[in-house]
Amino acid sequence: MSLSHEREDNLIKTLKENFPTDIKDATVMRRSRINVTVAPEKILDIALFLRDKLGFDHPTGVSAVDYNRESRFEIVYHLASIANPAQRDILINLKESVPRNTPKATSLVRIWTGVENFERESIEMFGLQFEGHPRPEKLFLNDNWDGPPPMRKEVRFPTD
Amino acid sequence: MTTTDKPAQESTLGSPSPDEPGAQTLTLSVGPQHSGSGHMRLIVELDGDIIINAEPDPGYVHRGIEKIIELRNIIRSIPVIERPSIIDASNLNHAWVKAIEELQGVEPPARGQYLRCLLNEMNRIMSHLYWLSIYGVFLGHTTMFMWPLGDRELFIDLAESLTGARITYSYLVPGGVRRDLPQGFAEEAIKRTEYFEKRLDEYENIFFKNPLFTSRAKGVGVLSRQRAIELGATGPTLRGSGVEADLRKDEPYAAYGELDFKVHTRPDGDSYSRVMVHVDEMRESSQLIRQILEKMPSGPVRRKAPIVVPRGEAYSRVESARGECSFYMIGEGGDKPYRARYITGSYRNMAAISAVLQGVRLADMPTSWWSIDYWPVEADR
């Protein structure tokens, strides 16, 4: 396996050139994996750029991570590319952080329809809010679930 | 009985005017106790017998596995990881150990990698056969139900002799696999795969050319290439819509880079295409098993790996029977992950159910949505 990350570095360079102030951090995690942290208010523009200009047209999932010690949630969009066969192996983790007391983010369903269910799961499991989500309803939990969002770190199992 | 002289009240329940919204359609709740739904519910809106909208309502088999694996050490989590899709346990297990090994920087020995691929491919066939037999149930084709389930035993026996368990093996561990091939495994596997390929020819004649199947699958439940991509569909569903994407080729892992195989696609995106992609893949996996046994190097099958998730992030991607299975793992140095996001093929393909069912007749609903190979337990996790 080659150790050069030319394709990954080029993608990061293009992103930084187009969004010099909104990309907070961009690193090559390893070959084929890129982490990009962006300002939440600009995520829509960057997502559109990723989809239309860089060919990341295939959403593979959305994760939410509760960093309770830092009082923030991180929302991570995992993106792959079908449009460009030369970067089929590359996966971009597009990250944004929202404060834990006002966990509001912009929904990216209008960019990738496939993230709808994943965002819905983050709503019910972490108590996040996605503005512009077409169906912010429960997905896996019971409709009458009234406990706290169960994936938050402070929610423990009774046997813990 | 006495009569009252109260004047009969005029009923307010009469038929609504045909111009009212919703007056022409009927909303049906199919499942979760319905033989055509699986462990989930489909809320179907009908105009006559044409489906104009179908919404999956999952969650009936949600176990909170992402929470459970935050609380157990990585070895104790392996059997939990396998539960969502016991018919495809090895591939899910692979995604888990791959994420851990990435963080640990541990590379299993070559023979261990080949043994992983061996069980993965056996599991792919077993999973596809199980799926095919349920497809037979949905078609009302009893033979199509019995044959694949019977032939699945060929591989279940092999897996049992390799791992000690019929379906949930916990065979892959960080650093390699639990044990080496038993004596006489290769000869038995070659015999069984060759027999299985002959059986696939018989399937071809009795099922796949059968008008009972083709008339309900060809041109039914079409998912276009563009729609499949934007919905994030994966695995046979994506390949059935003409996209040549397979992680075993796109980002070769374990021993797949050294193996020779083809990625099968069909251009039409209908139920028939998705079914045939599964069938082609079984043939391919069967030859892969022989190839793996032939090319397998000698040596150790396992390397020592610590029971620890080092600080950092990893994203593992594995081509399971139902498409990409991945773990987004965040470690902080303990024996359990800080967060392990578990994304399965079925979860991703759930989005395709609505798209596939639009415009399909109600009678074709079970065969259309099942052609996606959506396994509710794997989606709920």
Order of strands across the main sheet of chain A = 1-2-5-4-3
Largest interface: A-B, 39 and 35 residues
Q: What is the chain-wise order of helices and strands of chain B?
A: EEEHHHHHEEHHHHHHEEEHHH
Secondary-structure element string of chain A: HEEHEEEEHE
N-to-C CA distance of chain B: 58 Å
What form of chain B results from the Cα inertia axes?
globular
Which percent range describes the beta-strand content of chain B? 5-15%
The number of E-state strands of chain B comes to 8
- Report the CATH superfamily of chain B: Cytochrome-c3 Hydrogenase, chain B
Report on the architecture of this protein.
The complex is a heterodimer of chains A (160) and B (381). By secondary structure, chain A is of the alpha/beta class. Chain A has a domain at 6-100: Beta Polymerase, domain 2 (2-Layer Sandwich), CATH 3.30.460.80. Helix content of chain A is 21%, strand content 30%. In chain A, the strands form two sheets. A five-stranded mixed β-sheet of chain A has the order 1-2-5-4-3, covered by helices on one side. A two-stranded parallel ribbon of chain A has the order 6-7. In chain A, strand 1 and strand 2 (33-38) form a beta hairpin. Chain A is globular and about 50 Å long. Chain B has a single domain (54-380), classed as Orthogonal Bundle (Cytochrome-c3 Hydrogenase, chain B). The longest helix of chain B is centred in the N-terminal third of the chain and has 30 residues, at 110-139. In chain B, strands 1-2-3 form a three-stranded antiparallel β-sheet. In chain B, helix 4 (110-139) packs antiparallel against helix 11. The model of chain B is unreliable at 6-14 (pLDDT under 50). The chains are: A alpha/beta (160), B alpha+beta (381). The interface between A and B is large, with 39 and 35 residues.
